[in-house]
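Checked the freezer inventory, then went back to the computational side. Two predictions to log before the end of the day. The first one is the construct we discussed on Monday; recording sequence and tokens without edits.
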Amino acid sequence: MTQASPILQHIVFWPLAAWIIITAVGVVRLRSIVRSAACLMTCFVGIGGMYLMLHAEFVFAFQILVYVGGIMVLILFAVLLLQRAAGEELRHHNEHGGLALLVSLGFLFLFGKLVVFADTWQAVGGALPGRGTLVWTGHQFLGRYIIPFEVISVVLLVAMVGAIIIARTRGPER
């Protein structure tokens, strides 16, 4: 792929970054769980756009398919199923929002101080040879990391079955 001009990169990066930040704040601040989940889905799409800007097309596709497609369907399915079982609209609210904001800003400052502004970053020209390709990622994913991959799939399956069991046993008529 060809590199885009720095001006074009800024034209795409800053609106995409603002979109990610606004939807991430929406995930935390919206009171409706379904709207919060929808903001999370759009945030994941924005993060996928960042991967596309970094020429990581495989990670972009994986981000869209797994997170936006799979996990958001699971979250919305569980939320809507539990909401129906509870017989009321589920809402989340944190009374300690100010404290959470203060702690988050403290962590952001600490992260910026220790990681971003550290002088240990070195620029490397180009991708590492043989790494980062689709074939290399596939070999790593289905070779070296097959056990964590399968464990995650079993955990997601157990979470979905657990949500169904909880919703069926805690229905309004029981």
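The second is the one RB wanted added to the comparison set:
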Amino acid sequence: MNRHTARELAFKALFGLDFAPEKILNTLENLWSEKIAEGEIPPEKLVNFSRELVLGVIEKKERLDEIIRRRAIGWDFNRLARVDKTLLRLALYEMLYRPDIDIPVSIDEAVELAKVYGEEESPKFINGILGYVAEHIEEFWEES
């Protein structure tokens, strides 16, 4: 078990946020319980990592959505695919608020998850927005 799995479970829990915000941490705990039932015993640090990501995205959601709105030029925010919004929020949170995670790792992870859970154009769309933020990260750090 690795950080990719922890991040994927955080993504799944955050995706559920749009449907049942009051159950978000229960969702995350249930996802971890499923992994344990499958015989994967996660190190506590990975469970904590995914929990920190979920709570951090929830806390900074307004700011993260503001950045997505600014960079998704020509797109109506409310019509963006939920998978894309969730992956963007997660990666942006890591990029802006988790200095322990290299920015290229955050981008690569979001793109890889988009290939699995998103639509055909999702990886390119996500990479474009995150790439722009990465190139201008100082501007976004100052505002965060």
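For RB: The helical segments are 3-17, 24-37, 44-71, 82-97, 103-117, 122-135, 137-143. The chain has one domain: 3-143. Let me know if you want it refolded.
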